[in-house]
Write a structure and sequence with these properties.
The protein has about 260 residues and is of the alpha+beta class. The protein has 2 domains: about 90 residues, no CATH class; about 140 residues, ATP-grasp fold, B domain (D-amino Acid Aminotransferase, Chain A, domain 1). Helix content is about 25%, strand content about 30%. Strands 7, 8, 9, 10, 11, 12 and 13 form a 7-stranded mixed beta sheet that branches. It has a 4-stranded mixed beta sheet with strand order 1-5-2-6. It has a two-stranded antiparallel sheet with strand order 3-4. About 35% of the residues are buried.
Length: about 260
């Protein structure tokens, strides 16, 4: 069974004769010959589809490969592309340590949940989740493009499993506290351009930091309904160093 899919999403020739960009999307699921997830969450398939839609905004040819993360654990079975035009876009935090790609450092740092919590608590003075206590049920999106943050509206859990709502209403004080946390944390990690999600909760009117995601994880799907550009398109803009000046939001503000 093949686990790699190649898809040309834009058939436009580059006027300057440059090579076609290639994107490697890595997911925590098995992938069939058509690039569909066959063993994993339907949410993963929605994330891949959303990212493909963002990539399709490109004015130049883009080739896409969707690869199962499990395939990377075999050192003898590596992705075939090895050139400067390849853009890595993992949509999972579970990657082998020996897998080399430009975002390896930030993905490894985000996978070290305890280390990030300790840094936030010791250096910024925020309370953090402890084990499985105070786990985050809210997410702050940060479009971190060329070291400049654009903050999206907070996302919260929906009424049914694996559903999310945006925007969630927060006080000005809590927003300022969140923005400070996000800015300092990303600076401490020398974070590359990407969309990040800070997962957190609120207890006794205080921010409780849980973890940092280095890509638009499942909660970002809420932005497909209410935000322009959505967070997956923003992620593509960041990875390809395209300018992004503002985020537009619509929809009723939801109380916490």
């Amino acid at each position: 069974m093949a686990i790699v899919n190649r898809e040309r999403v834009v058939a436009v020739l580059d006027n300057h004769g440059r090579g076609m960009k290639k994107v490697l999307i890595i997911v925590n699921a098995e992938v069939n010959e058509q690039g569909k997830t066959i063993s994993g969450s339907p949410v993963t398939e929605k994330m891949v589809a959303a990212l493909k839609q963002g990539i399709a905004t490109s004015s130049q040819p883009v080739g896409i490969e969707v690869v199962a993360a499990g395939n990377l654990w075999s050192k003898s079975n590596k992705p075939v592309n090895d050139d400067s035009e390849l853009i890595y876009c993992p949509l999972t935090i579970q990657l082998p340590e020996y897998f080399e790609f430009p975002g390896k450092k930030i993905y490894s740092a985000c996978r070290d949940i305890v280390g990030r919590r300790r840094w936030v608590e010791n250096n910024l003075g925020y309370k953090t989740s402890v084990g499985d206590s105070w786990l985050g049920h809210l997410w702050l999106p940060i479009v971190f493009n060329n070291q400049t943050p654009l903050y999206g509206e907070v996302i919260g859990e929906g009424a049914i499993p694996n559903s999310y709502e945006q925007p969630i209403d927060l006080s000005i004080r809590l927003r300022k506290s969140l923005y400070h946390l996000a800015n300092q944390l990303l600076k401490s990690l020398s974070a590359p351009s990407a969309v990040y999600l800070i997962q957190f909760s609120i207890h006794n009117s205080e921010i409780i930091f849980d973890r940092l995601w280095p890509f638009p994880a499942a909660p970002a799907l809420a932005s497909l309904r209410n935000q322009y550009p959505d967070l997956y398109t923003c992620h593509w803009y960041c990875l390809t160093k395209q300018p992004l000046l503002e985020l537009a939001i619509s929809g009723e503000i939801m109380p916490i």
